[in-house]
Structure formats: structure tokens, C-alpha cells
């Protein structure tokens, strides 16, 4: 496939935070129109681990082994949030974003966790906001009082200062808030019927999702929202969502919206969940039918 028919992509992921990043990473790597220029393991705060970024990297490396991929760039992101809105957390991941932003065509950077590395890239190289780059962020609560759960949205909570840097900067942002990303739910039965037994990769994806639910849910559950996956489907087919242009807000310490810079951002209000899930399932099944090495 020619480079002209592929989108350049960087994926920033707190891969070991929950159990949905894994599906998004695999979907991207199995998609021929996405030229994945690098994976950036991200931190997910210190509430569950003091080495969350390192755990994200280990999970990425596990997925790459299961996919038998050896040439994918993995560049560590920051180990923790930025201290304030003027001080970057320099990291190989932030530097990778800066370098890739200098290409001739659009760079899509998907953030499946906090915006730490994007904010750091902006603070390290302010000219990046004038380059052809699209930041897709899974984060923030719904607008107009819409919510899928109470309290501060998790990805935002892990670096509020970084979100304010990015939203204030004027860089192109597509925001997928919690009321949208929470609607990408799959059940255990569907996963087993669609991809179960097709490969060691597929079986691991299902197993780790069920194990996460068992460890972290204290109520009956047999499903999970693949909340990070809209970032991938929107890169595959940007018109597969409904957008509204809104003024960029700022974020308060409780996760609520405040008046901001007013730079326009694109708020994602719906995604094509049928396309997202069926495309992902088909690619994972097809991966299981690939010729075996050796």
C-alpha cells in the first residue's frame, strides 16, 4: 500500500490502566491504512501503581510479542503528570511527537489516557501548534450535563494541567468525552463468539478483560466498554462520527468545564460503533488465519 493511501499515526496509551487500550492498540496495528509511527506508553497516575508508565510499556511489549511484531517503535512517555502549565515532562515520547509533527502530511496523535506528553511536546516546541497535526483525546465528561458516571473523568484526572495546556494552545483537537466513549460496550459472550479461539492474541484480549472486571468491579458484570477504540475508528474513517465545533474550555480541579481560550475544537458526539466493532473483530479473526511463521 502506498504512503499516500495511509495515515501517519502515533498512539499514546496508558495500556495497563484498564482492559480496553489493548483492543485499540491491536486494531490500529492490524489496519493497513494506518502507518503507526510509534507507540508511547503513558502513565496512569499513582493510585494503583508507582510505576504505571513502565507497566504500560510492559503491556505494549506483550501485545507486540503476541502479534509477532518486532519493528514497531516504542518511546516512553512521562512517568508522571506535569508539575504546572509551564513546565514540560521531557521524554522520548514527547520528542517522538515533535519529530513526527514535522512531516509533510497530517499526523494523527491518539491519546487514550492523559495528555501529559502532548502538553510537554507543546511546551518543548511551541511551533508544533502551527503544524498539520490532529490530537484525538479520549477524555473529559460530556457537555451540557451529559455523563455516564459521576465524578471526575479518569483520563483528565491524571493530568488536568496538561489538558489545559493542550486546549489553550490552539492545536487541532478532537475530543471524545465519556458520554460517547462509554457507549462502545461488548459482552463476554459476544467476544467469545466473535474472536474466541482464533489466536493466542484474541484469547489474551478476552482473558485480560474478564480478569480486570473480576478484580475491579464489585457488582455483577459481563461486559466492558472499549472506550479507547473510538480514537482508532475515527482515524480509520474520520467521517464515521458526528462532530460539533465548540470553543475550547479549561478544566477545573473537579473535572468540570470553565471558560477557556475559545479556540475551536471538534467535539465528537457520536461514533459509528457498528463499523468500529465489526472492523476490529474481522481484523482479529483474520490475524488468526495468517500463515504461521516457520
UniProtKB/TrEMBL annotation:
Keywords: Glycosidase, Hydrolase. Residues 9-236 form the Inosine/uridine-preferring nucleoside hydrolase domain. The keyword Endoplasmic reticulum does not apply. It comes from the Bacteria. Transmembrane segments: none annotated. SUPFAM superfamilies: Nucleoside hydrolase. This is Nucleoside hydrolase. It comes from Paractinoplanes pyxinae.
